[in-house]
Design a protein that fits this description.
Blueprint: E1 26-31, H1 42-58, E2 62-67, H2 72-78, E3 85-86, E4 92-93, E5 98-101, E6 106-108, H3 111-121, H4 134-150, H5 166-177, H6 182-185, H7 189-207, E7 212-213, E8 216-217, H8 229-239, E9 258-262, H9 267-276, E10 282-287, H10 290-310, E11 321-326, H11 335-345, E12 351-353, H12 373-388, H13 390-398, E13 406-410, H14 414-418, H15 426-435, H16 442-468, E14 471-475, H17 490-496, H18 503-515, E15 527-529, E16 533-534, H19 541-548, H20 551-563
Parallel strand pairs: 1-2, 9-10, 9-12, 10-11, 12-13, 13-14, 14-15
Antiparallel strand pairs: 1-5, 3-4, 5-6, 7-8, 15-16
Helix pairs in contact: 1-3, 4-7, 7-8, 9-18, 11-12, 12-16, 12-20, 16-20
Family: Belongs to the short-chain dehydrogenases/reductases (SDR) family.
Protein name: GST N-terminal domain-containing protein
Keywords: NADP, Oxidoreductase
């Protein structure tokens, strides 16, 4: 497959003629983002997914022809593929994807029809749709397309236009919408909020399409990761949670206490530090880059000083202290030295937030020790780091109120959607680690790492709770737009933009996990939902069963076995 160019010089105009047989059986016409070119448009990404599935399971090769947004109609017409539908003004509407199957002389110009065609023409792979569900999938696809089409204006803020043709593209959008300018085309203020609320309501209606039958979840058959109505409602509740009830206003002074926040140089971790710095605590910001850490620390101090200058309240008691500590979760050989750095300076550790992590990394990503990238960075290394800090955690327990010494792990609602049966597939992880392939399926691998964090929280509570007095819980901070999403395609970011919340709101989940009285020794090991709620029961009954059967202990010992040779 042609790889997307990485700079403006590499950018090539699309192939406009396919009269000759190409080097690979199928040519896939996709909409190009602005340089560096990469996939972003939702409908072509559906087709890319089906093509990749067939490439993996049926050895079907394809090549990509990238098309600038301004040339889509020209390309589709040159291929003699009919328009998709009509614009509101009656003119023909053209978009991509289109595939040309040179070996069979076929051209298909709709993402759903492409999937049906590939299943029919290349049946040697497992089917893309469970048996007898094609009509249901088509219905659902139409409904999803309508919901996102009706709210596409919300995505225009993040459209990765080609700078050379952006003006032409925006003018065309305005013409079709009957607007005089791009500023008039965009929505702001209350109009945007109303559109967001309507989008939320439409997502709720989509959830109603997921009914459960005797044969399993609607649309997805008997697959253990299929979305049931119960699951999608649970996900919606985490997408659009109630407002935080535990905020910085609930924090008392934390003088004399010592905290570690991994990944505190940006995103939720940085927002959490901004909440904690005014309380008088000593805060260790643990990350790889000293430069980025110092930039973040300066931002925290500057914002505090600015707020102090305009505040009439002079009884705060003064700020805390910020300390940088190097932590590279990608290399297990460095972890013990990072913990030793802390031990030379502190005798106690009151709370550690294992916040740092990676998500959706490119295929093939692995750690220095050749572990799958998500589980290696998000689970194995944080467990080693936390284990090395146990002497300081135990010391804090002896001089602190019961239940106030805590280890906070970070999970995600992606568990509900993509984690395999039982949460973590150790056999599959062993295979990837042994082969050194790195991550193979970003969504599933990331979901396993977040289920792994849940397991570590549960097993930590079992090991450290009644005997040590240390709390161990996990939390999902919510849908927060941070650098953890940096590897995701632009189309996905555009589609998800309406569901994102500010980092400071996600940090309230962290505050709840660290300080709320609703979390105590009697509730040790709980899963905390955004933006500060103890989950009563997770919808993944298979994972709950795995927890009851001892999977957290097995996963913990599996992680220990991986890091032992490197300490």
């Amino acid at each position: 497959m042609h790889q997307p160019p990485h700079n403006q010089q590499d950018y090539q105009q699309p192939v406009l003629c396919t009269s000759r047989i190409m080097a690979k059986p199928i040519t896939f016409y996709d909409i190009a983002s602005g340089p560096p070119v990469r996939p972003y448009a939702p409908n072509p990404c559906k087709a890319r997914y089906t093509l990749n599935f067939k490439r993996l399971h049926a050895n079907l090769e394809y090549q990509t022809s990238w098309t600038d947004l301004t040339k889509v109609a020209q390309v589709r017409q040159s291929l003699d593929v009919a328009p998709c539908r009509k614009h509101f003004d009656g003119s023909d509407f053209y978009t991509l994807p289109v595939i040309v199957d040179h070996s069979k002389g076929q051209k298909i110009g709709d993402s759903f029809d492409i999937a049906l065609y590939l299943d029919q023409a290349y049946p040697s792979s497992p089917p893309l749709f469970p048996p007898a569900t094609v009509a249901l999938h088509r219905l659902f696809n139409v409904r999803v397309d309508k919901v996102f089409t009706d709210h596409v204006i919300l995505a225009c803020y993040m459209m990765p236009f080609n700078p050379e043709t952006a003006a032409e593209t925006k003018a065309d959008f305005c013409r079709r919408a009957g607007k005089k300018s791009w500023e008039e085309f965009e929505v702001h203020g209350e109009e945007r909020m109303m559109l967001l609320r309507n989008f939320e309501a439409e997502l709720g209606e989509l959830a109603k399409l997921y009914v459960k039958t005797d044969e399993g979840p609607f649309l997805e058959g008997n697959t253990p990761i299929g979305l049931t109505y119960e699951r999608i409602v649970d996900i919606k509740d985490q997408w659009f949670p109630p407002k935080p009830t535990f905020t910085e206003a609930n924090l008392s002074r934390q003088d004399g206490r010592v905290f570690i926040i991994t990944g505190g140089n940006s995103g939720i971790g940085l927002a959490l530090i901004k909440y904690l710095y005014p309380t008088g605590a000593k805060i260790y910001l643990a990350c790889r880059s000293e430069e980025r850490a110092k930039t973040a620390m300066k931002e925290v101090v500057d914002e505090y000083n600015e707020a102090a200058m305009i505040s009439d309240n002079d009884t705060q008691g003064g700020p805390g202290e910020l300390v940088y500590m190097h932590l590279d979760l990608n290399d297990l050989r460095t972890i013990k030295a990072s913990a030793a750095f802390f031990a030379r300076r502190e005798t106690r550790l009151d709370i550690i937030w294992n916040n740092a992590g990676v998500a959706g990394v490119p295929t093939g990503t692995k750690t220095t020790q050749n572990l799958e990238g998500h589980v290696g960075v998000n689970c194995v290394a944080p467990l080693l780091f936390t284990q090395e800090l146990l002497p300081q955690l135990r010391a804090a327990v002896k001089v602190s109120p019961p239940g106030s010494t805590r280890v906070i792990w970070s999970s995600s609602m992606i568990i509900e959607r993509f984690a395999p049966d039982g949460g973590v597939d150790l056999t599959e992880l062993d295979r990837m680690n042994a082969a050194g392939t790195g991550s193979e399926n970003a969504s599933v691998d990331y979901a396993m790492s977040k289920a792994g964090n849940w397991f570590l929280a549960v097993e930590g509570a079992r090991r450290w709770g009644s005997s040590e007095g240390i709390l161990s819980v996990t939390q999902n901070p919510g849908m927060i737009n941070t650098t953890v999403w940096k590897h995701q395609p632009n189309w996905l970011m555009a589609a998800m933009q309406p569901t994102f919340h500010p980092a400071k709101t996600g940090a309230c989940t962290m505050l709840f996990a660290g300080f709320s009285d609703e979390v105590g020794l009697e509730t040790n090991g709980v899963y905390i939902l955004p933006f500060g709620r103890v989950q009563q029961k997770n919808v993944r009954s298979d994972i709950l069963k795995a927890i009851e059967e001892g999977k957290p202990k097995e996963f913990w010992e599996w992680c220990e076995k991986l890091y032992q040779p490197h300490i």
